[in-house]
Design a protein that fits this description.
CATH superfamily of the largest domain: Immunoglobulins
Distance between the termini: 157 Å
Number of helices: 8
Structural class: alpha+beta
Number of strands: 20
Number of domains: 4
Low-confidence stretches: 290-301, 309-324, 336-345
Strand content: 25-35%
CATH architecture of the largest domain: Sandwich
CATH class of the largest domain: Mainly Beta
Length: about 375
């Protein structure tokens, strides 16, 4: 076989293989506010299949590959003003075993009010408040340029918001809100005490991104709002003060209880220390009269003069010295006392311990 004939056969086989890969079906684009999602269906998953996604726009072509049956285009659309102001379409191709299906084109879509496309995507309008003032209703809402940070890609482009207000009485008002204004506001005439709808678009030159028109919004009374705010703050303040008072009371009660338990524990666990110098001094003070007698100079005098000696030292008053009632005969030897084997001369004395307490003391001779 000639070489060019073999090449032709291989080309035909490859074409047949490629044609046998079924294409995806039901390729659709959904745009819910900022999010743009591409979906499709595929009936044959054997063998494993992947899909090539080609996004075509006025700013170029982006190619990606996935094994899912959907692809998120949000990041691509909002990465620049050229993209979200542009015109887009997507082609999806199934890939199997080196072969591929015929590409399937999605519907065309855009966020630009002035572009012609199968689907026009809209952004949700920021939350609107209508307040009944003394001189007329006030319409206000967050500036969409600050509410949707994705729109700040054109921060230096001089874009502004062109807005319109229509009342249920058939009146129509337009105004503009610039990028530097964080809140867009419009004061309605005093006679316009009705409900309104608000709509508009982001304008960058001749290009415009459109916003959904709101539902009918009726005014609220400022006095009611102020009263509600005041009551709410008052209740919150009372609750905070009550909570702090209860907390402080509990902390104080717990502290006093802990101190009392600690003192009781210390009292129960107290054991005198016999080696404590202060305790020894207190004991000596109690028994000092007897000890003074032992160390008194009266030990050097005779028994007859001992009483006078005690009186001189302040221990006895005259007349307090008494003789024992039962005296033993003089010729009888006194009995041994203690560990001594010889007799002793005993002198009974009355000693004042202080505070009116008296005790008997004996003097050994």
């Amino acid at each position: 076989m000639r070489p060019d004939g073999a090449f032709t056969v291989l080309l035909l086989i490859s074409s047949v293989t490629a044609l046998t890969v079924p294409p995806p079906t039901a390729v659709t684009v959904s745009c819910r506010n900022l999010r743009v999602l591409l979906n499709w269906e595929f009936s044959d998953q054997q063998p494993p299949t992947s899909f090539r996604v080609e996004t075509q726009s006025s700013d170029g072509i982006l190619k990606n590959e996935t094994t899912e049956h959907q692809y998120d285009l949000t990041g691509f659309i909002w990465e620049s003003q050229n993209h979200y102001m542009g015109f887009h379409s997507v082609r999806v191709t199934a890939l199997q075993r080196g072969g591929e299906s015929q590409p399937v084109q999605s519907e065309t879509f855009t966020f630009n009010k002035w572009k012609t496309a199968d689907k026009h995507c809209l952004l949700d309008f920021p939350p609107v408040e209508v307040v009944a003032g003394d001189s007329g209703n006030i319409v206000s809402f967050p500036n969409p340029f600050h509410f949707y940070t994705e729109l700040k890609q054109d921060e230096k482009g001089g874009a502004l918001f062109e807005l319109n207000i229509s009342s249920d009485q058939g009146n129509y008002y337009t105004f503009k809100c610039r990028q530097t204004e964080s809140v867009c506001r419009y004061d309605l005439p005093p006679s316009e005490d009705t409900c309104v709808r608000v709509g508009g678009w982001l304008a960058a030159g001749v290009e415009k991104v459109e916003f959904n028109q709101t539902e009918l919004i009726c005014p609220s009374k400022t006095s009611d709002a102020h009263v509600f705010t005041f009551v709410f703050l008052l209740i919150a303040l009372v609750l905070i003060i009550s909570g702090l008072t209860v907390s402080i009371y509990k902390v104080k009660a717990w502290t006093l209880k802990t101190q009392q338990e600690s003192e009781e524990t210390q009292a129960l666990n107290f054991q005198p220390n016999n080696e404590d110098p202060q305790l020894l001094r207190e004991v000596e003070e109690v028994f000092s009269p007897v000890m003074v007698i032992e160390s008194s100079s009266c030990s050097e005098v005779s028994s007859e003069d001992c009483g006078a000696c005690f009186m001189e030292e302040g221990w006895l008053e005259r007349g307090e010295l008494e003789e024992p009632e039962d005296q033993e005969p003089e010729d009888q030897e006194p009995e041994a006392v203690g560990n001594y084997d010889h007799g002793h001369v005993h002198l009974d004395v009355r000693v004042d311990l202080g505070d009116g307490d008296l005790a008997d003391a004996y003097r050994e001779g």
